[in-house]
Automatic annotation (TrEMBL):
Compositionally skewed regions (Low complexity) per UniProt: 509-526
Ranges where the record places region Disordered: 509-534
InterPro entries in UniProt: FAD-bind_Monooxygenase_sf (IPR051209), FAD/NAD-bd_sf (IPR036188)
Organism name: Rhodococcus rhodnii
Protein name: NAD(P)/FAD-dependent oxidoreductase
Coiled-coil intervals, chain numbering: none
Length: 534
């Protein structure tokens, strides 16, 4: 456990002082809290804007919500779920699992729920982060941002949408008081959420218009309930679930070859998707509308067995002309067709490379993270630290996303890195730690070089994986076990550090101006660790 700060002169009256603030309590934030606790730390608090743990799985409660990653991969390695009912889990099961983990590890009392973080600002004179929230102010030596990539819904910029007088809501903010039975409904978007929503709404709506900008690739969903024998084995046979998890993991990892290394190997998967489309849609006109015009894998691959059949129903129409405007009671397509609707469901995804949360994090010299990313792109080091933002760690940061497997694996890898960082910081009494800019630049140059041959960059599509500079700052370009290997130990030599002793002895201005490279003790600890690039 780190030494406690005794000089509180810079802490405003009424401000709660802690060692570490964790922001968010989905898989990332909850996992971080548990691992910090297991490492013997008690000087942390988790700030969660919702009323419970769960993050994405607490918020996305639309009809049909389910995971598109196999159940056996969708749990913490230290808390396997022996209660999964099927091979792909529905949202309620996942949320119950997350809640059960929070209860098992008795971590809820470290949370402040209903706490909306309004700003996170680095105080150069105090060498601490000042966090303003709806539940009061906090001061912390370290911040772990675990807000995730799918937390801020992206709303379409459509003329007149604010004047619509019917029901309108985003898929991630589903209005459970709305009754869509017998209504005329429009769904905007055909991404991962939309293909789960459309089949459910099609069952009850009098008419459903699906507005599609780009047709997605859809693969069969190999989903089934586990047999009684399988459920028994998962619960009672030692090693059975671990072996099943390993098998699913290894199978998924093979996709990396086609996605990131040699896109030609995606051809068999594309043939499977085309066969799935031909088998489920017989109408050649409709089939033409929903046939993608880019290489499979360029955008997120979707899985569904009931999306295409839903589109074939007589009360469902796929509109590909684009939306010109929304009026008080209708959606007007670019070809001039006006379709009256009673409700609009916005399924247009989330802010990923342009998250509004970036606007409220202020690093050295008061520079917002959004401004930093606007200049250099959404870059970090190992997806976990960003130059200019000392003592801050990001979970699900730049280039940690996956196109083939479970993010929980990546999250655990990052948490390992953060926990080891805390050990090094405590061991060498480090006051501030910040990734070197040259290390970060070299690391990102290598990332973009590795990504240059991927299907994401050569598949003929424009996806949300790319930032405004045209770089893929979302996805990891290798095998997940490679990322795990890179993050198994905190490489202190890649960071600028200043000791707590120096910070206490020197005036704040001098400490800032003479920000040292890693101290001799820290370098000795680093030993033969390799800094920088992969």
């Amino acid at each position: 456990m780190s030494p406690q700060v005794t000089d509180t002169s810079a802490v405003a009256e009424g401000t709660r002082e802690v060692g570490i603030v964790v922001i968010g309590s989905g898989f990332a934030g909850l996992g971080a809290a548990i691992r910090l606790s297991q490492a013997g730390r008690t000087d942390f608090v988790v700030l969660e804007r919702g009323d419970d743990v769960g993050g994405t799985w607490r918020d996305n409660t639309y009809p049909g919500a389910a995971c598109d990653v196999p159940s056996q991969l969708y749990s913490y390695s230290f808390a396997p779920n022996k209660q999964w009912s099927r091979s792909f889990s529905p949202q309620p099961e996942i949320q119950r699992y997350i809640q059960s983990v929070a209860d098992k590890y008795k971590i809820r009392d470290k949370h402040v729920f209903g706490c909306d973080v309004q700003s996170v600002r680095w105080d150069e004179s105090a060498h601490r982060w000042k966090i303003q929230t709806s539940k009061g102010d906090f001061s912390a030596r370290f911040v772990v941002s675990a807000v995730g990539a799918l937390c801020e819904p992206a709303l379409p910029d459509i003329k007149g949408i604010g004047s619509f007088e019917g029901q309108i809501f985003h898929s991630a903010r589903w209005d459970h008081d709305s009754d869509l039975a017998g209504k005329r409904v429009a769904v905007i978007g055909t991404g991962a959420s939309a293909i789960q929503i459309v089949p459910q709404v099609a069952k009850i709506a009098s008419r459903l218009d699906v507005y599609q900008r780009t047709a997605p690739w859809v693969l069969p969903r190999v989903d089934r309930e586990y047999t009684a024998a399988e459920r028994f084995a998962y619960k009672n046979v030692p090693g059975f679930q671990k072996l099943a998890r390993l098998g699913v993991y290894a199978t998924r990892e093979t996709q990396v070859v086609g996605l990131a290394k040699a896109p030609v190997f995606m051809k068999p998967i594309e043939w499977l998707a085309k066969a799935h489309l031909r088998r489920q849609i017989s109408d050649p006109v409709l089939r033409g509308k929903v046939t993608p015009n880019f290489r499979i894998g360029c955008k997120r691959m979707l899985i569904s067995n009931n999306y295409f059949p839903a589109l074939s129903q007589p009360n469902v129409d796929v509109v590909t002309d684009g939306i010109d405007e929304v009026t008080a009671n209708a959606v007007v397509a670019k070809d001039g067709t006006r379709r009256e609707v009673d409700a609009i469901i916005v399924a247009t995804g989330f802010h990923v490379t342009d998250s509004p949360t970036f606007e409220h994090i202020y690093g050295r010299d008061g520079v917002p993270l959004s401004e930093t990313f606007a200049k250099i792109g959404q870059q970090g080091y190992k997806g976990t630290t960003v130059s200019g933002y000392p003592n801050m760690f990001f979970l699900v940061g730049p280039n940690t996303g996956l196109g083939h497997s479970s993010m929980v694996y990546m999250i655990e890898s990052q948490i390992n890195y953060v926990v080891d960082a805390m050990r090094a910081i405590d061991r060498y009494d480090i006051g501030t730690v910040e990734v070197r800019r040259d290390v970060q630049d070299r690391y990102n140059a290598d990332l973009q070089s590795a990504l240059s041959s991927s299907v994401w960059m050569n598949g003929g599509c424009a996806s949300w994986y790319l930032d405004e500079h045209g770089n893929n700052t979302t996805l990891w370009p290798g095998f997940t076990f490679q990322f795990r290997d890179e993050t198994k130990k905190f490489d202190l030599i890649a960071y600028d550090t200043v000791s707590r002793k120096e910070l206490a002895a020197a005036p704040a201005a001098k400490a800032t101006a003479t920000k040292a490279k890693a101290k001799p003790a820290a370098n000795a600890a680093a030993g033969d660790e390799k800094a920088a690039a992969r």
